Amino acid sequence: MQDPQENSINPETILSKGMFHRLFPNNLVLTPQLNEVYELALAYYESKILTEAELVQNGAYFARVGNLFTNHYLMCTGESVRLPQHSSSRLKSFFEKNQFRTGYASHGLFPYRGKFHPQMIKALINVMGLKPGDTVLDPMMGSGTVPVEASLMGVKSIGLDASPFCRFMTQVKYNALTLPIKPLDLALKKTEKIFELFSHVTGRPGSDSKIAKTSNPAPKTVIHESTTGSGSSPMDQLADLIGTDKSEVLDFLILAYLDSVGYSERSKRKSPLTLFQAILERYVFVVKKIQHVLQDSKSNIATSAILTGDARSMELDDQSMDGIIFSPPYSFAINYLENDEYHLNFMGVNIDQLKEKMVGLRGKTVKEKYKLYIEDMGRVLSECARVLKPACFCTIIIGTNDNQLSKALGIPKDQVNGLHKIIIDLATNHGFSPIRMLSRQISGIANTMRNEYIVMLKRLQA
Ligand SMILES: C[S@@+](CC[C@H](N)C(=O)[O-])C[C@H]1O[C@@H](n2cnc3c(N)ncnc32)[C@H](O)[C@@H]1O
Question: What would be the CATH architecture of the domain defined by 76-177+301-459?
Answer without folding.
Answer: 3-Layer(aba) Sandwich (3.40)
